[in-house]
Design a protein that fits this description.
This protein is an alpha+beta fold and about 200 residues long. It has five helices and nine strands; from the N terminus they run ββααβββαβαβββα. Strands 1, 2, 3, 4, 5, 6, 7, 8 and 9 form a nine-stranded mixed β-sheet that branches. Helix 1 packs across helix 2. The protein is globular.
């Protein structure tokens, strides 16, 4: 198992077999999956792990398994993956666009873990892999994830908001907001105002 990133409290690492049951439980939790059209079945959850590890193996980064460093407790995932659909914000942009996301167990909420881990991913993406831009998106009603995006210093232009093509038309979760972080904004934030990883 490779540990790709470490913060004061967390390890971001490769996925392992022992992650499958707690990740499946997380993906079946209606509170965690409130802003998804439906919870995941076990097969969908296991397939996500396979996809995430394949992305890490291919790109050198991806949606990492996250554990609390002090206890080794698995709490979910945080990391980057390519945007796999076409929307107005993807047209004419460098491909593949990379989006950052997170999904943590309810027990891990309220501790700043998502922001801490995502900040480390920004450090890696911009400082090591030299990515030009990272986006993040969620249903417009998902205030918890929006708050994380804003704490990270990501910015929203309402003109970028979109209807997610993978959510059925008319579904309450189809309207999405889009937040961005460019390498330039990241560099400025590291020189002053926004401590991304702490």
């Amino acid at each position: 198992m490779t540990i790709h990133l470490e913060t004061l409290r967390l390890r971001l690492r490769d996925w392992q077999e022992t992650d499958r049951p707690p990740f499946a439980a997380l993906n079946a939790d209606p509170d965690v999956m409130e802003f998804f059209p439906a919870p995941f079945e076990r097969g969908e959850s296991d397939a996500a792990i396979e996809r995430y590890q394949s992305l890490i193996d291919t790109h050198g980064f991806g949606p990492y398994a996250v554990e609390i460093a002090r206890t080794g407790t698995f709490i979910g995932y945080v990391g980057l993956e390519p945007v796999n659909f076409t929307a107005p914000f993807t047209i004419g942009r460098p491909q593949p666009m990379m989006g950052i996301g997170w999904r943590l167990s309810v027990e891990a909420w309220g501790h700043g873990y998502a922001s801490e881990a995502a900040g480390a991913c920004f450090d890696q993406a911009f400082g090591i892999f030299d990515l030009p831009e990272i986006v993040s998106f969620t249903a417009e009603t998902n205030q918890r994830s929006i708050a994380v995006m804003e704490r990270l210093g990501m910015t929203r232009d309402p003109n970028d908001d979109f209807e997610h093509p993978n959510v059925p038309e008319g579904h309450v979760l189809r309207p999405h907001v889009l937040y961005r972080m460019t390498r330039g904004t990241y560099t400025q934030s590291r020189n002053g105002a926004i401590p991304l990883a702490q």
